[in-house]
Sequence to fold (353 residues):
Amino acid sequence: MSDEHPRERPSAAQILATYDGPPLRIMEVCGTHTHEIFRLGIRKLLPPQVELISGPGCPVCVTPVGFIDEAIWLAEHGATITTFGDLVRVPGTSGSLATARAEGGRVQVVYSPLDAVAYAREHTDERVVFLSVGFETTVPAACLAVDQALAEGIGNFSLLTANKTMPNAYAALKDSADVFLYPGHVHAITGTQLCEDLAEQGVSGVLAGFTAKELLTALAVAVRKGGEGKPFFVNAYPRVVRPEGSPAAVALINKLMEPCDTEWRGLGVIPQSGLKLREKYESVDARRVFDMPHIEGRANPACRCGEVLQGKCKPSDCPLFGRGCTPQHPVGACMVSGEGACSAYFQYGGDVL
Ligand code: SF4
Fold:
């Protein structure tokens, strides 16, 4: 028997706008999610009891000051630094790679780790170091570059690593939010088992894609399921994230790298949350190639990036936001990066300025 007046299902936007459940804190783990949600105006749809907080998922933002100091030290000791553009402007303890370049250091912006290998191939008289930062998403490309350089016998290429992995970061942040908006591109590599396990431990989350429809759907799921108060996990990005992830990419990472303790800006050292080159690959490990001393960075005490990355404050709570700190004159990494929460608030958050 057909229903002559079928009830229309509410759209994801309607679900969000009409949510009348308990207060919910949803953490956008990924900086690209933060930017897209702002850019698409989705924040304006949310009722007041739904709070979006920014998390640590911006590779440049979580890279500690000490790493920038290491890169500057390398530039001052004969290395040619190859890197993505954002890192060039991130302040170290004193100065940035841009400053080092202005003072005669060689700093080249590249668009991929393989571009850095190509640069090394063409400049055999230079010792080329690629700055390998980022999460499980970007590590396979860095590993591929190392593989390529070794296969071709390119002896003037190495990596300076500060790569991060998400599992222990989720554990460190689990009390900061009621629901995680999981980064789709990370889990396209690692799969969904971790999210399933976290749900069993009481940590809720939704895996989200990056289009308007995917973000609205993921947030609608987050409020609907989150409002019920029971731990859950939903993969709202199934067109890209498969349960098994990408076994080939994971195998490539495991071949070249191993877990290590690592420092996250704002979160301190999280055990076994980083990746470093295995001993067998010391010939492409820049710290060993250049016999680098231990370098301790000091963050600008006025910058609250650390608290922003833990969801403890909003960028607009920082006294420097929009005053001493702007994208043109950034004081901290979160204002430099195209995925940083401070730059998202500055570009799109007109109502919070
Ligand atoms: S506004 Fe600038 S100084 Fe303040 S937390 Fe953000 S990056 Fe740091």
Remarks:
- The chain has a mean pLDDT of 92.
- The domain at 22-296 is CATH 3.40.50.11740 (Rossmann fold).
